[in-house]
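Our platform keeps sequence and structure together, in a single record for each protein. Such a record has a labelled line for the sequence and another for the backbone structure tokens. The tokens are whole numbers drawn from a learned vocabulary of local backbone shapes. The remainder of this section carries one protein's record, kept here as part of the documentation:
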Amino acid sequence: MTTLTSPPGTAAARRTAPPSPRTGRGGPRQGGTVLAVPALAWYLVFMVGPMLAIFVIAALHWPGMLQPVSFAGLGNVRTVLADPVFWDATRNTAVQLAVALPVMIACAYMLGYYVAQRPPGHRIIRYLLFVPGLISTPAKAMVFYAALSPDGLLNGALKGLGLGSLTDAWLASPSTALACLIALDVWSGIGFTAVLFAARLNSVPDELGEAAQLDGAGHWRTMWAIHFPVIRDYVGVVTMLQFLWTLFGSAQHVLLLTQGGPGTSSTTLSFLVYQKAFIAADLGYSQTVGVILFLAGLVGLLGIRRAFRQTY
């Protein structure tokens, strides 16, 4: 019988073989750092750079892009704080966040919980929830304008039901213009947020819900007392995202539907930044409001993170 033996020195050669460059000391980390350089450079130039520019421009008196610039110091801050339009915009933004955010998150969570239970046609429901996200912002504004104009669908429905006394120029009334914008914010964000919640709830073990139902808990109690605490941190993340979108992204809805009016009844802080920069050509005022908006967003994120942190 023939036995196969390794050539002399093979074992020693294996033991003394140099380490592979891929597994050598510091190799993967150095490679990962090199790959991250383009992304870091992009972030510094197009994210950190504009953020620092906001603070610089806020200290300048700059009446237009091609106009001479002078140092204003805290003059812009005093001008902003003495302007009643700024306080109207602050109040409108606070009302917008206080109404739109809880309604959107609560409704989206309940809708996401329903979809996560896999009812008949749940796949189609997921696709339908994405529809508002597939429509461009001008198209959404046109839909709401068609529904809320004096001769629109809402007034027509009220007249058809014999409630003609309740009709109104919804977008042109100081008492309802902001409410219409809030309704658009909720409609735009609730479907996409519900899909996010449904995806997260699908990862929760089914045994939790089954055990709760065996103990006599209904869907309502299971939804809020069992599943909600499990994904509490994820609810905080989604709430922060919607908070930022509502705080900074509402300007486009205001611009397309109400232009901040009537008067200042629908002017928000984000729209005030646009209005002062591109209409009034007061860049110092605009970016001072931008700094205040940035600080408000930072405080809001910290508050939401603290409110939704896990307690166990």
Q: What stands out?
A: Confidence is low (pLDDT under 50) at residues 10-14.
